[in-house]
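Objective 1.3, modelling of assemblies. Example input:
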Amino acid sequence: MSYRIDCLQYANWSEEIFRQMRAGGLDAVHVTIAYHETFRETVLNVERWNRWFEDHPDLIFQGFTAEDVRRARAEGRTAIFFGAQNPSPIEDDIGLIEVWHRLGLRFMQLSYNNQSLLATGCYEAEDPGLTRMGREVIREMNRVGLVVDMSHSADRSTIEAAEMSTRPIAVTHANPHSWHPALRNKRDPVIRAVTGTGGMMGFSLYPHHLKDGSGCSLRAFCEMVARMVESYGIDHFGIGSDLCQGQPDSVVDWMRRGRWTKGVDYGEGSAGAPGFPAQPDWFRDNRDFPRLAEGLAATGLDGGEIDALLGDNWLRFFAESFGPAADRREARAAE
Amino acid sequence: MSYRIDCLQYANWSEEIFRQMRAGGLDAVHVTIAYHETFRETVLNVERWNRWFEDHPDLIFQGFTAEDVRRARAEGRTAIFFGAQNPSPIEDDIGLIEVWHRLGLRFMQLSYNNQSLLATGCYEAEDPGLTRMGREVIREMNRVGLVVDMSHSADRSTIEAAEMSTRPIAVTHANPHSWHPALRNKRDPVIRAVTGTGGMMGFSLYPHHLKDGSGCSLRAFCEMVARMVESYGIDHFGIGSDLCQGQPDSVVDWMRRGRWTKGVDYGEGSAGAPGFPAQPDWFRDNRDFPRLAEGLAATGLDGGEIDALLGDNWLRFFAESFGPAADRREARAAE
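Predicted structure (C-alpha cells):
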C-alpha cells in the first residue's frame, strides 16, 4: 500500500482546491462539515457538498468506507469523508448518531474548545470528564461506526474516552505538547491513552500547533514525527493537516466564537494576530503533500514507514472503524 | 420469482405487526414515514424506525435496493422501505431530495390531498398542474432515484408528472374510479398515463377505496383486479394495501388536518363516521396477504400472473427505480 490521506482539512472549497488534491496525490481527505452548526445547518453543509460531488465527479466523491479509498486510487479521484468538530449536529438527540452515520459522518469530536453536553473542551479551566450523555454517545458511536475524535477536548475527558470506548478513538489533528506547548497540543499521557488503545493521532500543519509557528521548518516538523515514531511505534500516527486554505479571517472568528459569546475570543490567536496564520512555505496547500515524504525520508524513516504515516495507517483505521460493531442481536438473527 | 410486496402501509408499528408480516410471507413493505412532518420531524420518525430495526433484526431491516428484497427472502425477514405521502420532508429545499435518498426514502408523493409547493392534491377544486418547483423536484427525484408517487394528487398534476418524469412514476395505493367513484380512486386517463409510461399502480384495501366499503367481498375486489389486468396488461399493477392497522382515530384526524386547518375535515369519512373504517374481514392484517392469491386464482388468473400482482411487478419496478440515473458527468468521469 502507499495511500495518501489527509485526515483533516477545512478549506474554502472550490474546483481549484479539488484539482490541487489530485495534484498532491491525495486518495482521501477528511473534511469538517460542522463547527457550531445545528443538525439542520449541518445538513445544509451536506447539501453544498452534494452539489460539489455532482459538479466535479471527475475529481471527488463522497467516501463511506475504507474500500472507497482504494476505489479513489483506482479511479484517480479523491474520496471525501465527513467529520464534525463539535457534537452540535446531534444536538441533544442520541438518535441522530445513526442518522449521521447513514449520511456519511465518520468522525465526531465530543467537544470543541468549550464544555459540550458530552465532554470538556481544552479551553475550559476545569475538566470533570465525560458527562452522562457523553458515555451514552460513545456507546452509540461505537455501535454504528462513528469515530470518537478528541482533538479539541481536554485531557481527562480524552483519557476517559480512550478508556471507555470499545473501539479505538482518534485525535485527528494535533501535535505533541512536549514539542510545542500549545493548549491544543497533546501531553504524553493523552497520546499514550489514545495510541495505547489502538487509536490514531494525526500530525497538524496548522501554524499555531507548530514550534516556531509559520516559521517552523519541514525538517523540524519531520524530526518531531520521527521522534514520536521512536517513542510510540509507527502504527498509530498519520497526518491531519488542519489546512484552512483560502478562508477569510471572518471564518476563524466564527470558529472561535460560534454563537456562544457576544464577546471576543482569540483562541490560539491574539489581539495582535487575530486572523488565520500564514502556512509554512513548505505546506501551502494539497500540492505540497508529497514534500512530507521527502522531509520524512531525510530523517531516516524508510519507505514503508513513510507510507504508513502518510496514509496507510489511516486506511487501516478507516477499515476497522467505519462499519457497525458486531452486534449480538444481528448475530442471533443470522443463526 | 414469487416475491410478496405490500407497497403501502401505515400501521401502529409493533413487534406483533412485524411478526404478522413474517406470518403473511411479506418480503417487503413500503411504509409511510411522513404525512405532514417537516424535515426534522420526519428524521425523528426515521429514528423510531432505527430503534425498531435495532430491536427486531430477526424480523425486519431497512431496505434500500431491490436486492434487499431478495436478501429478505433468503434470510426470512421483511425489508422495510421508507416513503412520504407529502413533500413536507423536503420543505422548500430541493437539496433535501438527495439527503432523503441517502437516508433511504424511496417514494415521495408530490401532494397529499391539498395543493403543495409541487403539485395539486385531489381535494382541491382547481388543478393548475405541476408548479415551477414541482418540475425541478421531479428532475432531481429522477436523478437520484426517488419515485414520484401521485396517489393523493389531482388528475392533471398526475398526468403531467407521468409525462414529464423521465422515469416511471407510481400511484402506490388507489383503485379505479370506474369501479368505485371515490375522490381518491383514479380515472382511466390517469391510469393510462401512469401505466402507459411504465409506471405502477398498487391496489388499495382501504375500505373507502373499495366498492361497498368494509363490506366489499374478496371476490369483488379480485374481479376488479382481473378486469384491470385485462384492460391494461399484467405488468403495471401490484398491491398497496394502505393498511392502517391498530391506529387510533386521532391519527386519521391528524392525517386529514395536519396543521393546515383549525377546522374540521372528514376527508373520505363523514360526520357520522369520522374514524378509521373497519377492514374487510378477509384482509384484517398482514397475515391475510396469502388470501389475495386465493381470490385472484378464483378469477382465473394463473400462478405467474398472481406472483406478478402480489410482488414481482413491484420488485422489477424497485430494481429500475431506486438507483441513480445514468449521469453524463459520471459517465465522463469514468472514461
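Chain B is about 40% helix and 10% strand.
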